[in-house]
Amino acid sequence: MTRFSFWELARKALNAHQDWGHQWRKPDPKPEYDVVIIGAGGHGLATAYYLAKEHGVTNVAVLEKGWLGGGNTGRNTTIVRSNYLWEESEGLYDHAMDLWQDLSQELNYNVMYSARGVMMLAHTVHDVQVFKRHVHANRLAGVQNEWLSAEEAKAYCPPLNIEKNIRYPVMGAALQRKAGVARHDAVAWGYARGADKYGVDIIQNCAVTGIRRHADGSVSGVETSRGFIGAKKVGVVAAGHTSVVMDMAGVRMPLESNPLQALVSEPVKPCFPCVVMSNTVHAYLSQSDKGELVIGAGTDQYVSYSQTGGLQITTHTVDAICELFPMFRRMRMLRNWGGIVDVTPDRSPIIGKTPVPGLFVNCGWGTGGFKATPGSGHVFAHTIARDEPHPINAPFTLDRFRTGRLIDEAAAAAVAH
Amino acid sequence: MLLISCPWCRVERPEIEFRYGGEAHIDRPAQPADLDDHQWAEFLYMRSNPKGLLAERWRHVHGCGRFFNAVRHTVSDRFVCVYKTGEKCPDLEALAREGAQ
Questions:
Q1: How far is A284 from chain B (nearest CA, A)?
Q2: Residue A402, by phi and psi: left (phi above 0), alpha (psi -120 to 50) or beta?
Q3: N or C: which end of chain B has fewer CB within 10 A?
Q4: A347 interface with B at CB cutoff 8 Å
Q5: What is the pTM for the complete model shown?
Q6: ipTM
């Protein structure tokens, strides 16, 4: 495979860039693998990549029922941040944040990570108290996060409206400067290319229809639309469809799948310097390198796999954006879509072993999985390879719903729901 | 936006009049003290979350204020039927077979 470099770019330019070739293979499935990963999104591909690179497990297949990165990886709003409240979450998301810093160099693939800062707006006294609590908790844990007054927030993001006469006036903001955005597709492609280089088979258009088990209960492989594929270990990284896949092994999950909507505007010149989030009025906003405003809306209230949702959800978000950023009032929206997010009762992910020997699960990322992609893959690969969790994901077990040791990020209001 | 029929009011109204109540027919244990941790986890947290027909609760918060149940397909979001709280859950497998025909 070609290593991307300036010299390679210059050399290929002589031939009008005609011979770059494919960046990963399209292999037929082998009869058996050491590890089968179900789901070729960012998290699944990152898992395969770190399995091969850090643990020497290269006899790995990543099965994908559609196309690579076509689920939530291709549908999110590309925000990367780590200012969560609880120590467990700080450890997990900040681990990912560390990996984001030099991910492009690591993968030799430009994931366009841009540390432009994520600013979370506070609109009520309650918001102010909660965000200050976050800032202090993060400071104690060594996670970057700082408090800004409304005027400082305006200075950091000039389009922001800090007038006192709006429905939800800005009372301040929490800013994480090294947070930002990354190109979501490039993350999936970079990990796919990296994993393929180590010999991992990425098999697209191959839906898993069943999980076969030995007489002792441990997994023996997966039934797929392309026939049976044997596996010593199976990792389920199926996002919104996790309940459906786990049901094939008879494991019930504490998950509900909801549509989460997003939309983009027509492209305009650079006008928006950072990422702004507001949990209270339900809006996330950033500008892509193409110039579109990328807007995250809320979840629909009901369980659904429809990858679409009610227009009242996006209307609500656009209303809020028009008030916070009056200059966008005449902007036209180009398209909207939904992704199916798997939400746990405590809004924290589940990464670890299951009651079925040889079956591992990485799910429950809810509305905020993209930011964790490198860290999630890294610790999940460790869990599968060593058959025991990495210290970072040890608290994120499926068993915590039995023991009651929940990691309650929902009540902490760090994420919008 | 979904259009939802309230079986109490006998009217069809937009979704914003209603609040979702999650999976239906999860009964509170009759003898809570007898349950072990696994059974509590099952009652509190485990959900069937099916890709297909789901019996679920809705509450007509901006109408009569009452809870009712509905069967809805989670891929098409189409309502198959609604029924009052306390009535028996329809046979989902039979409904699925009918829907397939």
A1: 22
A2: alpha
A3: C
A4: no
A5: 0.95
A6: 0.95
